Amino acid sequence: MTALLSVETVSKRFRGLLAVDRVSFDVAAGEIFAVIGPNGAGKTTLFNMIAGVLAPDDGAITFCGERIEGLPPDAVCRRGIGRTFQIVRPFPGLSVEDNVLIGALLHRTDVNAARRHAHDVMHRLDLFDKRGQVASALTLPDRKRLEVARALATEPKLLLLDEVMAGLRPTETDRMVAILADINRESGLTILLIEHVMRAVMALARRVLVLHHGAAIAQGSPEAIVRDPAVVHSYLGAEALS
Amino acid sequence: MTRLWLGMSERQRALVGIVFVLLVFAPLVADRYLISVLTLILYFAYVGQAWNLMMGYAGQLSLGHALYVGLGAYVAALLWVDFGVGPWLGVFVAVLVAASFGAFIGWLGFRFGVEGVYFALLTIAFAEFTRIAFDHLGFAGGSGGLFIPYQEQRLGEWWNLRGGQILFYYVALLLAVSAVLLVARLTRSRLGYYWVAVREDEAAARALGINAFRAKMTAVIISSGMTAVGGVFYAFYYNNLFPAQIFDISRSIEIILAPIVGGLGTVFGPVVGAFILTPLGESLITLTEKLGINVPGVKAVFYGAILMLIIFLRPSGVWPWLARILGVWERRP
Predict the structure, then answer these.
(1) Pairing relation of β-strands A190-194 and A32-36?
(2) What is the per-residue pLDDT for A241?
(3) Which of A203, A205, B20, B331 is the Cys-Cys partner for A34 at CB 3.0 to 4.6 Å?
(4) Is residue B178 part of a domain?
């Protein structure tokens, strides 16, 4: 197993608070990896360090054999890591098509070629029929898919999804899960998701990392994780067992 | 250019064609006064377009564009008066100087995270510094002004911008048309989309691999360089430059009104805005004179009131609304 992304003893401190405490994990090329944990566990901080929004105080992040910790977000994206935002941030005044097009321009200088690629991506995300709509007029599920489409249009090797299921109804969650599973199967895209919705994690992830108070308390297959006493105690609650 | 033309609908081509032909042949029928007004309109369409590129597309508010007009004007005028270097050559130096200033202000602002209104304050500050500096620069005439001497024998040297009204009219037309073409072309390019992405949401733009700093820098540099060309035109059209006039903040505001009224971030907004505001100002002068209420400030009061009315009625500009009526509107980023 060759690691596409390797996170080694990464820490981040905000004044007195140790938000992420020596967390290590590897994500293999082609797999879907989930990071779960209660609110305040440090998931988003970890995510932001990989995406280049925050620089870790300690530790190393290696992507495709290259150290990327501390690089700015645009440089991280150009190396092949696409991301979504937990609170969606489409370009509000632009059409769905132009939103995706801007992502597609990363590896294409020709606008027409980028537009054709954007069309392909919009088809995959069921957004093609809405391509003319202004992004600010979309419903939340559509915006979430737009967020994924825009990141996918940059043709990443690794897709980082920050709570992309949050706020979706179960049917919408299933739809998103199906789309992501398809993309992963067809193109072998590696996905790292930070997620609260266990229904999605169970359906998608091959391996799961559990964070609690900034530290990794368990790692393994989803089936093993939900039976892990420490995880049940700190996060899932006893009802998950029943 | 052909691609731009082919990308337009029949109606759009017809409209652009008619307006262009009217402007080209206007001097055949218009009197001196009308031509001077049209020249002013085209000048404001041009500098408005340069500002629109930076604010309307890249989302960076400059309230100090008079700085670039003034620098362009002074550099070209000094080269001509002191060294006999013609404006056709001087314009390159003028662009270089103004773009360097623009680059420095942009670098200061974007490198150190001075954003929005604070960035605007920075642009005002630089325009003011420069105004005060020029007030004391002896070789540039100081506060007494710099004059381009009238030389009978040079009239007709169109390449040196020495000529009559018609010459300046066509130069202004050329500038305005070029600016429209340039902005239309740029906004359909990768860079144009990057500007819009940065304007809409900088963090999201960066997450898509866009180097926001570089995108903003190119916008400031192109915008300041373009504006300096307007300054060269200004210098040779009016033949006199005073720091207190050319660098004044009211000049910066004058530049930004046309694109705001016409429609920010649209290719034709600055042109439409200039065609509304300049004639409005001129007709108010005539009107207040005719009515015998030509007291200082009266014109400004009416002008301000009408401006407020337009902005109130068409907050996103006159052009998007007008274009829909004419059936030529298309969604553009």
Answers:
(1) parallel
(2) 47
(3) A205
(4) yes
Q: How many domains does chain B have?
A: 1
For residue A174, what are the domain limits? 3-80+158-240
Same structural domain for residues A75 and A113? no
- Per-residue pLDDT of A188-238, as tens digits, reads 999 999 988 888 999 999 999 999 999 999 899 988 888 888 888 877 765
Give the one of B194, B201, B209 whose C-beta lies nearest to A89's C-beta.
B201
* pLDDT, average across residues A47-63: 95
> How many Å is the Cα radius of gyration of chain A?
18
Inspect the interface and report whether the beta carbons of A111 and B207 lie closer than 8 Å: no
Hey, how many other C-beta atoms are within 10 angstroms of the C-beta on B26? Answer: 14
Asked if B190 and A90 come within 8 Å (Cβ–Cβ), the reply is no
- Residues from chain B contacting residue A95 (CB–CB below 8 Å): 331, 333
One domain, residues A63 and A103: no
Shortest Cα distance, chain A CAs vs residue B208, angstroms? 6
Task: Give the tens place of pLDDT for each residue, B246-302.
Answer: 999 999 999 999 999 999 999 999 999 999 999 999 898 888 888 887 777 888 888
**For testing the chain A interface, which of B110, B195, B208 should be mutated: the one with the most A CBs within 10 Å?**
B208
Q: Name which of B196, B203, B209 is nearest A94 (Cβ-Cβ).
A: B196
Instruction: Decide if B162 contacts B102 (C-beta within 8 A).
Output: no
How many CB pairs below 8 Å do chains A and B form together? 77
What CATH number has the domain bearing residue A186?
A: 3.40.50.300
List C-alpha distances in Å: A25 to A160, A180, A231: 15, 22, 17
Contact B241, B74 (CB under 8 A): yes
Sheet holding A58-63, edge to edge: A17-28, A3-14, A58-63, A66-67
User: What b-and-e string marks burial along A66-93, b requiring 16 or more CB atoms within 10 Å of the CB?
Assistant: eebbebebbebbbbbbbbbbbebbbbeb
Q: Are B65 and B246 in contact (CB under 8 A)?
A: no
Find chain B residues with C-beta within 8 A of A98's C-beta: 193, 196, 333
| Domain-embedded: residue A87 | no
Tell me the CA end-to-end span of chain B in Å, nearest whole number.
19
How far is the alpha carbon of B293 from chain A, nearest alpha carbon, in Å?
45
Q: What is the pLDDT of residues A94-123, one digit of tens each?
A: 999 999 999 999 999 999 999 999 999 999
State how far the Cα of A29 lies from the Cα of A31, in Å rounded to an integer.
Answer: 6
Produce one character per residue of B72-93: b if its CB has 16 or more CB atoms within 10 Å, e if not. bbbbbbbbbbeeebbbeebbbb
- The two tokens of residue B292 are 């015998």
Instruction: Tell me which of A103, A132, A155 is where a domain ends.
Output: A155
Q: What is the ipTM of this complex?
A: 0.91
Domain that holds residue B253: 33-260
Amino acid at site B40: L
Q: How far is A204 from chain B (nearest CA, A)?
A: 24
Please give the radius of gyration of chain B, using alpha carbons only, rounded to the nearest integer.
Answer: 20
Instruction: Give dist(CA B133, CA A92) in Å, integer.
Output: 43
Residue A88 lies in a domain: no
